[in-house]
């Protein structure tokens, strides 16, 4: 049978890993795909650097040489970013080529446009590598759990942030010190904004939520909060109370819409996902029939991500000649069956909370605070008052609340911060039990 010809856009970390895995496991991959998957050419920025890896593979510095090559059946986009990636992907689709991409930013922002173009042209766009590296979470959601009504999902889907939080907990280090260490180790970029402010995780959550609930990509409606304001004290207090702090992406069906949010979250330490440490990723999915299922593995790296890219290549090769109407839909649901269920504003989200504040150690302060919470319909689950350090007049007070509405917490925090006896701002971290029910 005629080989499937592949063109690579990018031979960096993931592109190089993809070429390596395709070459090393060529026999196994052919047996699985039913025909040879052959890389015909690649486009790169630096020819001299790429030649060391590429060997006799034809190289070009013009990506349109790959996209417009009539011999290429599948274009693999691994250059990242929005442009020229979007233009190249759209051109490949217009040329009748299938596309495989690891570009979560592109899919989260322009997925609706890309999938519509692919549907019209009868080609596939595969993007398993865009979320959680080598973990096959997209395939699990789109195919393995297709009997289920997905109720919620929660994921540690940014390894850099997870590494930082793990080091803060294990070593009692400050955020700034661990961030510098993460940059030295190559986990964090020189500009770490996308990772530490939750933007990267929000891209991935947008993709997962679209597949889980059959809704269009809606990145601009995702609530995003990072970890840069977390202190070592909060990490320590959470541990003392039996919780771990993780940067979670959470998507949940609610009565009036869908919650779509990324933020630091307290999780009970007994939960498996709370014990995912270092740069690893994990996604917990709750289906109505199967219950909670956990997917764990490397969320980044050359070969873990290449594993997902090559798996997509195998899938596209198997279905290359299939009737487009009988392929697995891009977002799991048939394109004309996507839902218009709204994304809830963050003010309407219901969850529990960890609140930490500093107050003067004098009579009546706790009474004032608890009255404000009660007036805002917030019930206290637990409260801890730390002893003041010698010579200090202020104490740390930690409160855990029962589930309530975000807007009520915002109103209560504003009133608490206005008290004369309270110093500075209230630290608020959301809390999720992630229980089976």
The proportion of strand residues reads 25-35%
Shape: elongated
Report the end-to-end length measured between terminal Cα atoms: 50 Å
- Low-confidence segments, ≥5 residues, pLDDT <50? none
Q: What integer value in Å does the Rg equal?
A: 24 Å
Mean pLDDT: 94
H/I helix tally: 15
Give helix % range: 25-40%
Main beta-sheet annotation: 11 strands, mixed
Task: Decide which structural class fits the backbone.
Answer: alpha/beta
Strand tally is 17
Salient structural properties:
25% strand, 15 helices, 6-stranded parallel sheet, alpha/beta, elongated
Structure overview:
With 437 residues, the protein is α/β, with parallel strands linked by helices. The protein has helices at 13-24, 26-33, 47-54, 64-67, 85-94, 104-121, 137-144, 159-171, 175-185, 193-196, 199-213, 232-240, 302-319, 365-375, 406-417; strands at 4-9, 37-43, 59-60, 74-77, 98-101, 125-126, 150-156, 223-224, 243-254, 257-268, 280-287, 291-298, 350-360, 380-385, 394-401, 404-405, 422-431. Strands 7, 8, 9, 10, 11, 12, 13, 14, 15, 16 and 17 form an eleven-stranded mixed beta sheet that branches. A hairpin with a 2-residue loop joins strand 9 (243-254) and strand 10 (257-268).
In short:
By secondary structure, the protein is of the alpha/beta class.
Itemize the secondary structure elements and their pairings.
Layout: E1 4-9, H1 13-24, H2 26-33, E2 37-43, H3 47-54, E3 59-60, H4 64-67, E4 74-77, H5 85-94, E5 98-101, H6 104-121, E6 125-126, H7 137-144, E7 150-156, H8 159-171, H9 175-185, H10 193-196, H11 199-213, E8 223-224, H12 232-240, E9 243-254, E10 257-268, E11 280-287, E12 291-298, H13 302-319, E13 350-360, H14 365-375, E14 380-385, E15 394-401, E16 404-405, H15 406-417, E17 422-431
Parallel strand pairs: 1-2, 1-4, 2-3, 4-5, 5-6, 8-10, 10-17
Antiparallel strand pairs: 7-9, 7-11, 9-10, 11-12, 13-15, 13-16, 13-17, 14-15
Helix pairs in contact: 1-13, 2-13, 5-6, 6-11, 8-9, 14-15
């Amino acid at each position: 049978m005629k080989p499937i010809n592949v063109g690579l856009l990018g031979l960096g970390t993931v592109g190089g890993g993809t070429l390596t895995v395709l070459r090393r496991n060529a026999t196994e991959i052919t047996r699985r795909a039913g025909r040879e998957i052959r890389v015909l050419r690649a486009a790169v920025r630096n020819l001299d650097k790429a030649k060391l890896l590429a060997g006799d593979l034809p190289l070009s510095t013009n990506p349109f040489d790959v996209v417009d090559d009539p011999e290429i059946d599948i274009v693999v986009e691994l250059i990242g970013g929005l442009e020229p990636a979007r233009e190249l992907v759209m051109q490949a689709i217009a040329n009748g080529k299938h596309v495989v991409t690891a570009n979560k930013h592109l899919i989260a922002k322009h997925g609706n446009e890309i999938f519509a173009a692919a549907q019209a042209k009868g080609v596939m766009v595969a993007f398993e590598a865009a979320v959680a590296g080598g973990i096959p979470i997209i395939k699990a959601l789109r195919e393995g759990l297709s009997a289920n009504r997905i109720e919620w999902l929660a994921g540690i889907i940014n390894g850099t942030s997870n590494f930082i939080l793990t080091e803060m907990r294990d070593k009692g280090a400050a955020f700034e010190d661990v961030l510098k260490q993460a940059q030295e180790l190559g986990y964090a970029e020189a500009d770490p904004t996308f990772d530490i402010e939750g933007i990267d995780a929000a891209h991935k959550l947008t993709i997962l939520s679209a597949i889980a609930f059959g809704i269009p990509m809606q990145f601009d409606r995702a609530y995003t909060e990072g970890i840069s304001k977390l202190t070592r004290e909060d990490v320590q207090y959470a541990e003392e109370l039996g919780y771990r702090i993780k940067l979670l992406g959470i998507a949940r069906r609610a009565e009036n819409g869908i919650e779509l949010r990324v933020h630091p979250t307290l999780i009970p330490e007994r939960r498996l996902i709370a014990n995912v440490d270092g740069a690893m990723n994990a996604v917990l999915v709750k289906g109505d029939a199967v219950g909670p299922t956990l997917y764990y593995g490397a969320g980044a790296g050359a070969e873990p991500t290449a594993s997902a890219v090559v798996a997509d290549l195998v899938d596209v090769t198997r279905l290359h000649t299939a009737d487009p109407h009988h392929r697995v839909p891009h977002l799991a649901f048939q394109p004309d069956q996507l839902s218009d269920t709204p994304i809830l504003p963050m003010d309407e989200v219901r969850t529990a909370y960890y609140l930490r504040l500093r107050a003067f150690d004098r009579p009546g302060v706790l009474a004032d605070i608890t009255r404000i919470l009660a007036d805002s319909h917030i019930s206290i689950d637990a409260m801890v008052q730390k002893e003041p350090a010698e010579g200090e007049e202020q104490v740390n007070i930690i409160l855990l609340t029962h589930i309530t509405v975000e807007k009520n917490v915002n109103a209560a925090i504003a009133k608490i911060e206005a008290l004369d006896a309270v110093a500075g701002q209230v630290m608020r971290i959301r809390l999720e039990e992630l229980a089976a029910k």
